[in-house]
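Subgroup meeting minutes
Present: P.N., E.W., G.H.
Scribe: E.W.

1. P.N. recapped why we're keeping a running log of single-chain structure predictions: easier to compare across weeks, and new members can see raw inputs and outputs side by side.
2. G.H. added today's entry (309 aa).
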Amino acid sequence: MKIAFMFSGQGAQFPGMMKELCEEEEAARAVFECADRALGREISALCFEGSQEELNLTHNTQPCVLAADLAAAAALKAHGVVPEGAAGFSLGEYAALTWAGSIPMADVFEIIQYRADSMQSAVAPGKGAMAAMLGGSPEQVEAVCAAVTEGYVVAANYNCPTQTVISGEAAAVEQAIALARERRIRGKKLAVSAPFHCAMMEPAAKKLEARFAGMSFAAPDMPVYMNVDGRVNADAAAIPALLVRQAMSPVRWVQTLKNMRADGFDTFIECGPGRTLSGLAAKTLEDVSILRVGDVQTLNETLQALQKS
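Output recorded in log:
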């Protein structure tokens, strides 16, 4: 058995996430205490008591999901579960790098808060949009984007073989949805506040580049598969540039999962709220064990499953 942790990204948040786990697991609670101290505001209260509307604000979403991701991993570690590799979806990549020792936990919350605010301010409200294209291949979705005449739109997240997310100008995304319908591909607008992982995020990428200047990242102490190419990065000096590129480049999640499987990983544990990454892994990989930890019940189920393996 070769275990990999998968860290959730933006969109998985929901009211009350991780509250029960933090009540039961001291290690998970300590992560939220770290987040509260680092940002000088109660990230824990937002997760445990905040509304869906509050959690959906990018300013809140990214630090909240990051804390939830790391809390789930901490609970697993407290029970003796240690991965041999990791990957994270978008902001989850920061959780993966933190778990691998590249970024100190005391620093990562301030970094992700800066990232969230930079991405939110990169595009004026209402100018951009994202949509999930369901049922078509990545090549078909790319062809739809190429056929759009109303502005800029590109494939942004390669989630699984039959789900690709597009991102770009609002009018262009709407036209892409209409063109996709003609080709029997269903488009579903996403409830996001900006068009992430496309060239419209260039202002945010430049801010991150400036923020990372002079910062030192440690080499990961386990393989971390990066979003921009789905490959392992072991070079500490390359991490800042990869994170900058990630802000305005597609998340190549399909390639990430396939590369991990090719490297022998056969047990994938989603750490964080929801089950999005578990579902994507199930649609992408065969002959693997897919588990998750988002609350006390799923923690116990995962621990039992691992004991039987």
